[in-house]
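Students often ask why we bother predicting the structure of a whole assembly rather than each chain alone. The short answer is interfaces. A chain on its own may look different once its partners are present, and contacts between molecules only exist in the joint model. In this exercise we take two input lines together and write out one structure for the complete complex. Read the inputs first and try to guess which parts will touch.
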Amino acid sequence: MKIIVLVEEKLAKIFLWASVLITIGSLLAIMIHILGQGLAVVSWDFLTGSSEDMGRRGGIFPSIVTTLYLIGVSLAFAAPVGVLSAVFLTEYASKKRIIGAIKFATETLAGIPSIIFGLFGFAFLVIFMGFSWSILSGGITVALMILPTIIRTTEEAIKTVPKIYREGSLALGATKWQTICRIVLPTALPGIFTGIILSIGRVVGETAAILLTAGNSLNIPTSVMDPGRSLSIHLYLLAFEGVSLRMAYGTATVLILLILVINMAANILMNKMASKTSM
Amino acid sequence: MQSRLHERVAEKILFLSAATAVFVVLLICFFIFYEGFPFIKENGAGNFLFGNIWSPDDGVFGILPMIVGSLYVTAGALVLGVPLGVGCAIFLVEIAPKRVTRILRPAIELLAGIPSVVYGFYGLAVLVPLIMNIWGGKGFSVLAASIILAIMILPTIVSISEDSIRAVPAEYKKGSLALGATHWQTIKKVVLPTSRSGILAAIVLGMGRALGETMAVILVAGNVAVVPRSILDPVRTLTANIAIEMGYAGGNHYQALFATGIVLFLITVILNSFLLLVPQKLGDE
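Now the answer. The structure tokens for the assembled complex follow.
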């Protein structure tokens, strides 16, 4: 009896260790493989050169520009709407049913597969609104996808602002809105930025929704009405159509490095938020 | 007086922003159904859902292979991903020293941040040839898709299970240990049962992520619209069906893809409603 218990204890510990090692091992395997093959491809010319011969040669500059455009358009829409929604939910909303409906919609939005957003963006923005395949169509589509992230992280950040801050401001005669603008939001700012940075990561990585809405032109877009090919779409087409493995590794490396930087920035801000509101 | 007006306007703007999410969900519903529903009505839901053949050139649209395909790869991802993810979560809470946690947490966040297309590319470049060399076949398979999806849902499962395991009161554990139970017995008999609703939520969310994943699956699954006979056969999911054919679809075909979207949408909404049924906090049960 006792031996069985001891054996089970040992086996369980082995299983727990194994699951962690496999998880970390997968991450390392992916990173090492892609960076190992791709870092040699990434050079100044690769980053600033235009794509030639369907991406077989040249660089990824058009895709970098398109990705930046998409980040800009999606944040221009989702950041204000998301932050204001969160303020409403945490500071203003009192009716349970309204909060419930908004929360449910946000959760649903977060759970809808990206390809459905793509279908919607195609039917509504590309065709119905007549934006055609463009940065604008792609950007708005992705904005809807990152909205839940921004709402949720902003809500969390606002909730960590100590009550005393608000009471102090209100006691000095400030109105509710003044208190929110001058006290609550500035204190929650690092947390809000964390949400925005994580959303940028999502925009950078999004593929399925953009595939159906932003097109895949290899020209450098000059306005939001131009089509473009983001980094992730570029990688997808290079890999799926077997255009160039070498260029695919280079593009994947750039994507991973971007995500690394984004995650580090988010972590630094998160720590800042923690120190700002700890009393 | 003026400041009161400010307050009113501010509140209205805030409300409108918050209502955007609701409005967008309704708009998405409307457009997907508007484009896809007439097709289902015309062709019959039975023919569409249970039709075994998908052949747009012949005007035959049955999505059973894709429904089965989505279920297979999702089930495969859960079989591989859930034990690993819950194991990691237990490790993080019960065993890992603080210093290890400090390394593990960012690693898991990074795993969550890597774009799906990069996972797919890795699968295509490494996993598919590996499977081909070991078991034969083309390598593009249910197995490849399941493995890649399992890695992709790990962060979701780890972080949500971890939260719920961490929420188990220390007294429960101390009580169990004081009665002479070993550490593992305590985990198995006290910690896991107490946190089961959180773990269930983690599994449901992971399932949603696996079902909805598109790019990673397209790159490794082979995308043949036939019900796979073994885990080494190629497979096409609902998501892949839409993404691959949307670029050149017209007429009936176009509508059939939106109808595929309706099916996918309904499955995810049903899955999400399960989350509402799962008791959120400890002691709710």
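Check your guess against this: Residues 76 and 265 of chain A are 20 Å apart (CA to CA).
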